[in-house]
Structure formats: structure tokens, C-alpha cells
Design a protein that fits this description.
The protein is of the alpha/beta class. It is built from 10 helices and 15 strands. The strands form 3 sheets. Strands 3, 4, 5, 6, 7, 14 and 15 form a 7-stranded mixed beta sheet that branches. The protein has a 6-stranded parallel beta sheet with strand order 10-9-8-11-12-13. Helix 4 packs across helix 5.
């Protein structure tokens, strides 16, 4: 089968389209015929092997697993001996290992039935970004009537966060660039802020919950625009190869939070069947619709990752089989 592989860490140029053996599912896995996959920062961190903490999982000197890609949607082709939820022919979405390929294996617990109203492309755009948004908003204790701000509202996580926050009946403000203002309005934001014209940390508005998908403001600046008892959840931002910057920011955040009722916390999304079911219901009901920016054929995966790394994607970038 055709698959994108990498045998050393580095920039997108280390990726190759190669012929490899079709994977065999373990007892608790299914094998999918991949209909679509999508790109996440997760992928380029594993591709580059940075921050270096990634190599504790991926391998120190070179990748232990040569496939790349996590978000997936496809058709079940074969099932392991202990799988009970799915059968060959079922259409599913979720996460797997090596999604940038014609076939991939996934744990039964990491998949759900694809909503009938979604295409494979849309379903493949969901998992990591939508889980991050859902779990981030939950960590911020979202509830009806709250004033919620999403910084980076036109990105992969941000587009899901705006819609999920609206499903909780929150009053949502989205921060984005000039070219994406209408997009953010179209997915339900009550208010939009053009960050090229105005800094939301300098205005007089106060927010009960901030989901920060960008990480371009100091903890003290974010704390200043939180309402009493408010929570800012960090769900993105720049890293360095040793994680020194993020660790320093986390230390400052912890110190500030301990001195105030305005809290700053982080989020690292984890897949679980319960939240996957919640997302499926939101998608099936039409309350949440994935936003897709660009589509690339499998052999152009390096270009897709390069585009996402540049930081200008609105919504998700999808990979389709050749």
C-alpha cells in the first residue's frame, strides 16, 4: 500500500511516499481503508522530533514508528478478534497511527460511527482539534450565559471552540485576523475582534472563560481581562526544542494563579469514548460543523504540513488518498 513515511527527524522534506505492507489489526483494533485524514501540530512535532520530550515516545535518534498522521475517517475493512462495536463496511472516524496512508489500524475505543450528515473529509477533520476545544472549555467550567473569548478563533481548535461554546449557550467573542472575521461570525461568534487592529487584553471587556489557542500574550495580560473567578485555558502556542519557554510560562502562570481567584491553566487533550460520543452528537445535530481550509492529495502531504506550520490556516487541512 502507499503511505507517507519518515525514517529520520526533520522538516517536511524528510517525508516520503513509499510502498509498505498493509498493517494487520491487533485483537482490539480495526483496519481502515482511509478515506481522509487531517493534519495537526501533533504531526509536525513528531516529524521534527521537537520538542525533544516527543522523542521519549517516538524514539531518541530516529522514529520507532515510520508512519505519520492521527486524525482519520474511513471504512472498516477488517476487525480484530475482540472487536464488538464495528464490522467490515462500517464508516467511522476518530484517531489511529499512520493515517497518512491508504490503510491504517486503530483501536476500537478510538473510533466512533461517522455521522451520516458528514463527509469523510469533514469527519477526518474532527478528532484532535475538537477534543482539545471540548476538553479545554470543560476545564474552564463553561456554562450557559458565560462570556467566553476564543483567541485564535479561525484555527483548527478555534473553529470548533466557537461552535462548542455556542452549543453551551455562552456569549462568544472570537479573536482572529481581518481576512477571517466573516468566517468566525459565520460559525456563530457573537462578537469578533480583529487582532491586527485591537488587542483584546487592552480593552475594558472582562471574560469568564478564555480559551487561548495562540499563546501570544503574557499570563499577566490574560489575567487582567478575566472576570472575578474567571479561568483562562491555554490550548496552544509556540514551543522551543527544550520546552524552556513553555515551562517558564507555566511557572509564571502557576505563581499568578495562586495569588488570585482568576486562574490560568493548561490542557492536553486525551481521547476517550465518552467525549468522542459527545462530539458525534454535536456533529450529528448540526451544532458543530468542521471548517476545512485546504485539501491535499496524499503525495503532497509535505506541502500540507508546511502550510499548517506557517500558521495561516483557517480551520483544518485535509489529506486525501491519491
Amino acid at each position: 500500500m502507499k503511505a507517507i513515511v519518515y525514517r529520520r527527524y526533520g522538516p517536511p522534506e524528510v517525508l516520503r511516499l513509499d510502498e509498505i505492507d498493509k498493517p494487520a489489526p491487533k485483537d482490539n483494533e480495526v483496519r481502515l481503508k482511509v478515506r481522509a485524514a487531517s493534519v495537526n501540530p501533533y504531526d509536525w512535532h513528531f516529524m521534527r522530533g521537537t520538542p525533544y520530550m516527543v522523542r521519549l515516545i517516538a524514539g531518541f535518534s530516529k522514529p520507532k514508528f515510520i508512519g505519520l498522521g492521527a486524525d482519520v475517517a474511513g471504512e472498516v475493512e477488517a476487525v480484530g478478534a475482540s472487536v464488538t462495536q464495528f464490522k467490515p463496511g462500517d464508516h467511522v472516524f476518530g484517531s489511529c497511527r499512520g493515517a497518512f496512508a491508504e490503510y491504517a489500524c486503530a483501536k476500537e475505543s478510538d473510533l466512533a460511527a461517522k455521522p451520516e450528515n458528514l463527509s469523510f473529509e469533514q469527519a477526518a477533520a474532527v478528532l484532535i482539534a475538537a477534543l482539545t476545544a471540548l476538553q479545554g472549555l470543560r476545564k474552564g467550567k463553561i456554562r450557559a450565559g458565560q462570556k467566553v473569548l476564543v483567541n485564535g478563533a479561525s484555527g483548527g481548535v478555534g473553529t470548533f471552540a466557537v461552535q462548542i461554546a455556542k452549543s453551551f449557550s455562552a456569549e462568544v467573542t472570537g479573536v482572529t485576523s481581518t481576512r477571517n472575521l466573516e468566517l468566525v461570525r459565520s460559525i456563530g461568534a457573537d462578537h469578533v475582534i480583529d487582532y491586527t487592529a485591537s488587542d483584546f487584553t487592552q480593552n475594558s471587556n472582562r471574560y469568564d472563560l478564555i480559551l487561548d489557542c495562540v499563546g501570544n500574550h503574557s499570563p499577566s495580560a490574560l489575567r487582567r481581562v478575566l472576570a472575578p473567578g474567571g479561568i483562562c485555558v491555554g490550548a496552544g502556542g509556540a514551543t522551543d526544542v527544550w520546552l524552556i519557554g513553555p515551562i517558564a510560562r507555566a511557572a509564571q502562570t502557576t505563581a499568578l494563579s495562586s495569588l488570585s481567584d482568576r486562574k490560568l491553566v493548561g490542557i492536553l487533550a486525551k481521547s476517550n469514548p465518552q467525549d468522542l460520543a459527545i462530539l458525534r452528537d454535536l456533529l450529528q445535530s448540526g451544532k458543530v460543523t468542521p471548517v476545512i481550509d485546504r485539501r491535499y492529495p496524499l503525495h503532497e502531504t509535505p506541502a500540507a504540513i508546511r502550510y499548517l506550520e506557517a500558521g495561516h490556516a483557517h480551520g483544518k487541512v485535509v489529506i486525501l488518498p491519491d
